[in-house]
Design goal:
The protein has 214 residues and is α/β, with parallel strands linked by helices. It has one domain: Rossmann fold. It has 8 helices and 7 strands. A 7-stranded mixed beta sheet has the order 3-2-1-4-5-7-6. β2, α2 and β3 form a beta-alpha-beta unit. The longest helix is centred in the N-terminal third of the chain and has 19 residues. Bound molecules: zinc ion.
Length: 214
């Protein structure tokens, strides 16, 4: 029996995996690969006036809808924003993540960049490496950028993915995150700038750019 190739994408907040890798995810899943997004926080801080449960439900529903479009699956952990590392240690999340990865046996993992200025994004990067170091079977490890769109000095090799065919799906999936728009809408202009810039590298319309770090 042939086993489907699997890919895991780590995502600090519910919309990060769509912003950073949505087109690539759709490329993979529509080619028959299985993609799992692991979302670490519901992001209650963006709606302090709403009850925690209400925000969680809203985020869960939006993420389900976005995932359906991208044909991937999403699973949530409940880390508090700004306290990712603390909760990661306290909840012994490393064990759970190891279990998931060892069960799924992904060929690739995508995670946040260590140069992303958002502290939760950097925490996820740190957590990823912490878990990765324990893995017996090591998949390829890539990082994507959210808040650091300009290229920086790095010795890591680049991976450019042509997302011209899945870019509209990515946008549609992104529009599902209505609750994020109240407080933090990822600047559309930044997304367009990045997608076109990365696409240009491959002489195509839209692209996504990753660094391979392991
Ligand atoms: Zn985020």
């Amino acid at each position: 029996m042939s086993r489907k190739e699997k890919i895991i994408v780590f995502s600090a907040h519910s919309d990060d995996f769509v912003i950073g890798a949505g087109g690539t995810i759709a490329n993979y899943s529509y080619a028959g690969k299985k993609v799992l997004a692991i979302v670490f926080s519901y992001g209650e801080l963006s709606h302090p006036w709403l009850k925690q449960k209400v925000v969680q439900k809203m985020r869960y529903k939006e993420t389900e809808e976005a995932s359906k479009l991208l044909k991937c699956k999403a699973t949530f952990f409940d880390l508090r924003e700004g306290k990712f590392m603390e909760d990661y240690q306290a909840k012994n999340l490393k064990i759970e993540l190891l279990k998931i990865i060892e069960k799924q046996k992904p060929t690739k993992i995508f995670t946040h960049s260590h140069e992303d200025p958002h502290p939760d994004h950097r925490a996820v990067h740190e957590m990823t490496l912490d878990v990765y170091n324990e893995l017996k079977q090591k998949p390829e490890l890539y990082m994507y950028s959210i808040w650091n769109p300009v290229s920086f000095k790095t010795h890591y090799p680049s991976l450019y993915v042509n997302i011209s065919k899945t870019f509209s799906l990515k946008l549609k999936a992104l529009w599902k995150f209505k609750s994020q728009k109240v407080h933090v809408l990822y600047p559309f202009i930044l997304l367009m700038y990045k997608s076109i810039k990365d696409g240009f590298k491959m002489r195509t319309t839209f692209g996504e750019h990753f660094f391979r770090i392991k």
